[in-house]
Amino acid sequence: MKLSATLALAAAMAVAGTAHAATELVIATVNNGHMIEMQKLTPFFEKVYPDIKLKWVTLEENTLRQRVTTDVATHGGQFDVMTIGSYEVPIWAKRKWILPLKTDAAYDVNDLLPPIRSALSYEGALYAAPFYGESSMLMYRKDLADKAGVKFTGRPTWDEVRDAAAKMADPKAGVYGICLRGKAGWGENMALLSTMVNTFGGQWFNMKWQPQLQSKPWHDAVSFYVDMMKKYGPPGASANGFNENLALFNQGKCAQWVDATIAASFISDPKQSKVASDVAFAQAPVGVTPKGANWLWSWALAVPASTKKADAAEKFVTWATSKAYIDLVAQQEGWARVPTGTRKSTYANPEFKKVAVFAPAELAAIDSANPDESTLPKSPYTGIQYVAIPEFQAIGTAVGQQMSAALAGTVTVDQALKTSQELAERDMRQAGYYK
């Protein structure tokens, strides 16, 4: 064969090979249990879509936020699908950093829980699909509560939680009265602390956008938190986030835990939790007001505007957040392991209701969360455990570091709040919110 013919054949084979090459989607996600499960189910997606291959980049929560924010802001195109939260969606949609999702009748967008759907929409369009949704609530060991003579109302106060922690703690047996987030991060310790400040009657900013971190409610809430955790919490709590506390609870080391409702499906699962048969649930604790006592969040899948594979990316997003996906998880792992907080049909399913002892408390928490009215004094922002402005990511993280230091005892509560106030004032002035 002549050289020219050989080259022509090789070129034709290369073109043919390219035509049949699979599209690779790079997916950035968080290292939470439901996302790990999603990765395990990759073969099921690739069987339905043999021309699409999935590549996973799994990161710790704070790292994920930094990586995807940098990538989407610079139009880097490193990821084709991003796991983002309800905080980012309206801000990024407004900046045209993410694409609106196209959903068909089979997807049934009206089946999504209204508070979750609203949180992931911008100007009436859905910009991210909820993989799971959550509020926050009190999870506790009923066996230890009964032993200590503790009875919780459906909506306990923080004083009741502290008193219960004192009675239920058994340090000699390795059981701590309460576990709460201490790891620094706007979505880690500040998610919890923001709800505590809300329910103690505080707010991040007043109507003039002036930071309120040295106000009485902030001082009361943070002092209460630090004092309770030092007395009844686990050692090294300033390093504990959601995953660390989940592990402690599953090992039987936490008498109480106030955190994301999504945790309920893990701690009530005997495959994961040593105390699955002993857990019970109540609404998030309140201080002087129920406003903003429990948060609203969704980890959702979005398609960045910088991707060159938008069609394939949308196929994956639709698949991973569909009714069919929930059914698939139920078939593979059981109804107790399905991602929750997203669809009405999940909570209406008799098989789910049979095994999900936490479902009524979880749904009640999500339904009661109101991001538009989360503080006792009037506030200029929306959001419960965060403030829905671009500057909050930096401010919340800086404040979170101060709160973590106060919990660790390296600074006093007063020092932490003073530094936080100064940092927030500087950033808000620089951003032009006030002079």
What would you say this structure looks like, in words?
By secondary structure, the chain is of the alpha+beta class. The chain has 2 domains: 23-134 and 297-355, Periplasmic binding protein-like II (D-Maltodextrin-Binding Protein, domain 2, 3-Layer(aba) Sandwich); 136-294 and 370-430, 3-Layer(aba) Sandwich (D-Maltodextrin-Binding Protein, domain 2). 45% of the residues lie in helices and 12% in strands. It contains 19 helices and 10 strands. The chain has a 5-stranded mixed beta sheet with strand order 2-1-3-10-6. Strands 8-7-9 form a 3-stranded antiparallel beta sheet. A two-stranded antiparallel ribbon has the order 4-5. Helix 9 crosses helix 10 and helix 18 runs antiparallel to helix 19. The N and C termini lie far apart (79 Å). Mean pLDDT is 93; it is low at 1-19.
